[in-house]
Amino acid sequence: MLTGKLVRVRHAKNKLVPLYIEPADSSLVALAEQLLFAYRSSPGRTRGEIAEDLTDFIPEGPRGLLPAGLAKLLEDRCEFEVEAEHPPGELREAGFKAAAIARAEAAKAGKPFDRTAVLKEVAESLSMTLTPELVERSLFADLKDEQRVQAFEDISPEHLLNRYNVALAQSILLRCTAMEVRIWGETPARFRQLFRAVKFHRLICSIHESAGNSYTLKLDGPLSLFSSTNKYGLQLALFLPALLHCKAFDLKASVRWGTERKEKLFTVSGADGLRSHLSDFGVYTPPELQMFADSFATKVKGWVLATEPHPINLPDGVWVPDFELTHPASGKKVYVEVYGFWRKGDVEQHYKKLQRGVSGKFVLCVGEQLRADEDDEVTFGNGVYRYKRTPLPEEVARVAALVAGIA
Fold it and tell me: Would you say 58 and 72 are in contact if contact means Cβ atoms under 8 Å apart?
């Protein structure tokens, strides 16, 4: 993602317009190739050495924002390590003390300061395996410019340029107060994929079905919250690539911009041509849910499990259960959601919403191992099943029979 000083935008009255680039532009493809060449040969080199190589491609001032932004995205694809034979902090502490004593003694005796002797003294005092050369090389190894690249995840120039446009939009969303998204014309599987992304990123969101096979999502932005704004803002920005897999959508976000935090409008639509850098898994099901579904089919009799239930309209929004259980003998249906990470307030509110909308038709599986408020007890009705590590199919079926009134 781009840092604030690398974000390129223009202002049109109350609107914030990102300066997207054209990924097919031959001059930009050439620039991307040059930057990629530096990073493809980066393993074993330091940040500082790479930055020095890039000085010819990143001019000072506004003209340097684009290449600097591309370089930042490539740096994010590097895996860095601190290469030191001994903790650098301890080396510096010992070295500075030894140097101060040596300088005082040299000045008193009228002799020049012997740096090599100090390095040798530090090496001998800290470890039998240290040498003066290793001490010198490791003294500042933990500083950012001295960190060495261990690996680089390569991409194509076109991928990098498309990634830049998405990163530009994501960096703006880090400063939003509220966001509304309308999506239309998608398949139920695509809608479910998007709603699962909302749940995965733990976003504060209300979902409402609209006319014309469409849904409207209303999300709180990081600057509307009282705490954890940086972490929440990042989760909101990380949601954007999932949205970009949809063909038809409109996103409107209120953004506080600049040092004065003036309110601006930022929009993104399917017509902007932004391409997600994430693989499109379509009807992808998380592994833990697929394992549960497979286990349920082999261990439980009398119930039929479906893994792609349609989103369910509630009085105050839309609910996306993970599974639909059908009891052929009675014709009754029960919906199941695996609620793995929760806080007391979150699960209580969610439970009450389901009680109002689908009472007697849901099982909420709550994971105890990830519970954030261990000291508090929450009392629920029959619709909640608490599990330790993974939900047990037999227990889910038992609770489903209980809530549905099946003997």
Answer: no
Are the C-beta atoms of 320 and 195 separated by less than 8 Å?
Answer: yes
Q: Same structural domain for residues 400 and 291?
A: yes
> How is residue 56 written in tokens?
């010819």
Residues 231 and 245 grouped into a single domain? yes
191 touches 210 (CB < 8 A): no
Model confidence, pTM = 0.70
* Cβ-contact 319, 312 below 8 angstroms: yes
Beta strand 214-220 pairing with 323-327 = unpaired
Reduced to 3 states (helix: H, G, I; strand: E, B; else coil), residue 380 is coil
Q: Are residues 104 and 201 part of one domain?
A: no
Tens-digit pLDDT profile for residues 236-286: 888 999 999 999 999 999 998 888 888 999 999 999 999 998 877 655 566
* Domain coverage including residue 214: 174-281
- Written as six digits, the tokens of 157 are 């120039």
What's the gap between Cα 235 and its chain centre? 5
Please check whether residue 47 lies inside any domain of the structure: no
- Distance from the Cα of residue 393 to its chain's centroid: 31
Distance CA 5, CA 277 (A): 23
C-alpha 164/C-alpha 2 separation (Å) is 8
pLDDT digits (tens, 9 = 90+) for 71-91: 999 999 999 887 666 777 888
- CA gap 94, 92 in Å, rounded: 5
- Looking at the structure, tell me whether residues 292 and 276 fall in a common domain: no
CATH number of the domain where residue 331 is located: 3.40.1350
- Helices marked H in 41-187 — which ranges? 47-53, 65-75, 88-109, 115-126, 132-138, 157-173
If one counts the domains in the chain, the total is 3
200 Cβ partners below 8 Å, 6+ apart? none
What are residue 182's DSSP bridge partners? Answer: 216, 250
Looking at the structure, do residues 234 and 135 belong to the same domain, yes or no? no
DSSP state of 398: H
Same domain, 295 and 399: yes
What is the spatial distance between Cα 65 and Cα 58, in angstroms, rounded to a whole number?
8
